[in-house]
Each structure stands twice: as structure tokens, then as C-alpha cells.
Amino acid sequence: MIRQGPxxxxxxxxRGPDEAGHVFLTFDDGPDPCFTPRIxxxxxxxxxYATFFLVGEDATRFPSLVRRIAQEGxxxxxxxxxxxxxxxxxxxxxxxxxxxxxxALADILGHSPRYFRPPHGRLRRSMMDQARELGQTVVMxxxxxxxxxxxxGAVRIxxxxxxxxxxxxxxxxxxxxxxxxxxxxxxxxxGFLLHxxxxxxxxxxxxxxxxxxxxxxxxxxCAHRKPR
Length: 228
Ligand SMILES: [Zn+2]
Description:
- By secondary structure, the protein is an alpha/beta fold.
- The chain has 8 helices and 10 strands.
């Protein structure tokens, strides 16, 4: 249903290695002035780190929120400038969507993002090429919370997330774009972090996959506290 793909398929990553007990939380479609802070607070209580795939035009509206995400130890990543569906735009515009968001985030943070995720998870060659040329790795996911639409209530989200396995890259949303329900995500998140703690699964940054992923069971500095 919601699990997919090998660890790395050609030029994109779907999961981390499962040798160590790490999982990788990702939040898409922010920053959102209401729900991003709420989710940051919940993550901080559990010393959990996540990657936020931000929409460039919203990042420029809320630059202090972008800085807060980074200052609290999370990764800020590229989710295009305006979240257009990759299949509905020209190749030229598709490339611009990647590069404009990258430039906007670099302006705010002082460095370019290192990861890119296409809107709706729809792969488009020109976007992938542009991301690669900017030095950004394309990151998909292996487990989706489906925190949108009629099945995106907190109870169902929580139920889906209980399928989590070592190495999963988990798709969640902190932005209100379209049918997203980040208020439900926020409700489900505390319980999910507790579940991860009970199963000794540590939420880590994507860097871990690249820095340590080849080393089996290497202990890292991914702190993980029992959520309050
Ligand atoms: Zn998105």
C-alpha cells in the first residue's frame, strides 16, 4: 500500500539502510506559520530531528521560520518554488521551479539545500537533472502517513505509522497546501514519537544515510528522548 522501493534506485533514495535502528522523518509543503512551529515544538520535546521540504515562495514569506527550522538542528530541503505538478509545466519552468527555490533557501540560510523532493512525488527528468546539477539528492519516501484528504485523520495516521520499520523515510506534512491536514499530523506525531522510542527507532537526519549508512550498527549522536 504505502511502502515502496529499495534503498536507492538509480539517482534517488527511498529508504535508509535497515542495519541500524534509524528512521527519517520528512515534513513537506511548509513553512506554515501555524503548524510548522507546533511540529517543531513536538520534535524538540523528543529530541527528534527531521527534514523539512519547503516550498520556496512560502519560505520567502516566512524566512524567520526557515531559520528556526535550521537553528533547531533540522535539515531544510527543496520542494520547488511553487509546488506545481511536475507533469503540467514545461521543462524550462520545471528547472526554474527547482533552481528558484534553491536560491531562495540559500538566500535565507547562507547555504544551498542538499536534498530535493518533487511535488506529489512525481518524477520529471528535467527537475531531477536540475537538482543534480545543483548538488541536491532526490529523496522520495518508503512510508506515507497519508495525512491529507478524507482518510487523513489522526487515528488513521497513527495506525499507518505503526507499520514503521528500520530505515523508513516517512512522508508527513506541516504545510496546509491543498488537502493536507497538518493539524491531524500534529496530533498523531507525539504518539508516533513515543512508538518510535518504545521500539528503539531513532529519528535522524538524512545525512546519516550518506555519512554512516554503509557502516553497520555504527552508533551516532542521534539523541532521542522519551516524549513528554
Ligand atoms: Zn508537496
